[in-house]
Amino acid sequence: MSGERNSSKPQDILLPGWRWVKLGDVCELIMGQSPPGSTYTDKPEGLPFFQGKADFGEYSPKVRVWCTQPMKVAEEGDILISVRAPVGPVNMNNLKCCLGRGLAAIRCKDSAMHWFIFWYLRSKEIQITSLGSGSTFSAITRDDLENLEIPLPPLSEQKRISTKIQKLMQEVEHARTACGKQLAAANALRASYLREIFESEEAKKWERKRLGEVCEFLDSMRIPVNDGERQKRIAGKKQTELYPYYGANGQVGWIDNFIFDEELVLLAEDGGFFGSFEKPIAYRVGGKCWVNNHAHVLRTNREIIDVDWLYFSLGIRPDIMCFVSGTTRPKLNQEQASKIPIPLPSILIQQRIAADLKGKMAEVENLESTIQNQQSALNSFPQAILRQAFNGEL
C-alpha cells in the first residue's frame, strides 16, 4: 500500500484514506477525581475504584478497591489511560467503575472505534510518556490528551485492523503461555533429578551427619555494605575491576573488594522463599567475592564431603523448615542451620553422583536458556505487530 507524508506530522506516513485528527475531536475525555477517603472499601459495595497504573492488568484493570460515592465514572468500553506517575499506559475498561485522579477515561464518539484507539495509544506509549511534566512527579493534562494527534482511517478499516491485531495478540499470548509451561517443566526437572537421588532406597542407607560437623561456618567474615555506599565506591569502575557481591538468593551486585577466594556453598539465612522452595536456598560460588549477612558461608571439610555434593544435598529440603524460626521474616540462624542433617555416603560415591548431577543440571540450564530466549523474542512481538498495523502492513 503506497503512502504519502502529512505535512503536520513529517515523521509519520499517512496512508490513503486516513486523516490526522485530534483525540479530543473524536473522543470525550473524562479526567479522574479522588473521592473522599471515607468512601473507599475493600468490600464489593458501590463501584469498583481504579486509581492508577497499579490497578492495570495486561489488557483490563483488576478490582482491588470499591467506592460508595464515586465522583467520576467510566463505562465499559472506555479506554483508561494513566495520567500521572507514570504517564501513558492504557487498559481497556471492562466494567462500570469509579476513576481516581491518576486515570482518565477516553470515550470514543461515532467516528472512532475504541479498540483501534486503544492499540494506537499503546503503540505510542513512550511518546505519550514524554508529554508528562512536573517536578515532583510526571503528569499529563486534559489539554495534552485532547490535542494528541492520531491517524484515523474509515470505521471499516479501523475494525479490520483492530480485529487483526487482537487475533495476532492472542496468538502471541498462547505462545507465551506455552513457553511458560515449558519453563516450569524445565524447572521441575531439577527437583526430579534431586529426588531421584536423595529419596532413593539407596539414600536411606547412607550415614547422616549434621551440617556443622561437615562444614565450617565463615559467617563472622561476612560484611554487609550499605547500597548507597557501595554505589559510590564502584561508580566509574569497569566491571573487570569489580567482584561479585552475594546475598541470600544469588548475586545482588558488584563491589570493589573481596573477602573470600575459594570454593564455597552459600545457604540462605533469611528471606520469603523459605517454605515455598520454588527458589534455591543454597548455591555454589567460587573465586574472589563478597558476601553480605543474609547468607551463611560454608567451607566444606574436603576429606569427608564434596562441595558439589553439599550443594546438591541442600537442594530439595522441605525438612529445613523445622530449623527456621519467625513468620514475618523467616530466619535460619547459624545454631539451627548447623543441625541440618546431611546424607554422607563415601567421598567417591559423592563425587560420582555429583558429577552426574552437574551434567544433568547443565542440560536443564541450556533448555531454560533456550526457552527464555524464545520468551524474549515473544515479548518483542506486540510492539512489532502494532508498528506493522499503523504502517499499513497488516
Keywords:
Adenine-n6-DNA-methyltransferase TaqI, Chain A, domain 2; disordered N terminus; 5-stranded mixed beta sheet; 4-stranded antiparallel beta sheet; single chain; 394 residues; elongated; alpha+beta
Overall mean pLDDT score?
A: 90
Counted by DSSP, the helix tally is 10
Structural class by SSE content: alpha+beta
CATH architecture of the largest domain: Alpha-Beta Complex
Total strands: 23
Query: Uncertain runs with pLDDT below 50, 5 residues or more?
Result: 1-11
Task: Provide a descriptive summary of the structure in words.
The chain is an alpha+beta fold. The protein is built from ten helices and 23 strands. Helix 2 packs across helix 10.
In short:
This protein has ten helices and 23 strands.
Topology:
Layout: E1 4-6, E2 9-14, E3 19-22, H1 23-26, E4 27-31, E5 40-41, E6 47-50, E7 65-67, E8 73-74, E9 79-83, E10 87-92, E11 97-99, E12 103-108, H2 114-123, H3 125-129, H4 142-146, E13 149-152, H5 155-198, E14 207-210, H6 211-214, E15 215-217, H7 227-234, E16 243-247, E17 250-255, E18 260-261, E19 264-268, E20 282-285, E21 288-291, E22 295-300, H8 307-313, H9 334-337, E23 341-344, H10 347-390
Helix pairs in contact: 2-10, 5-10
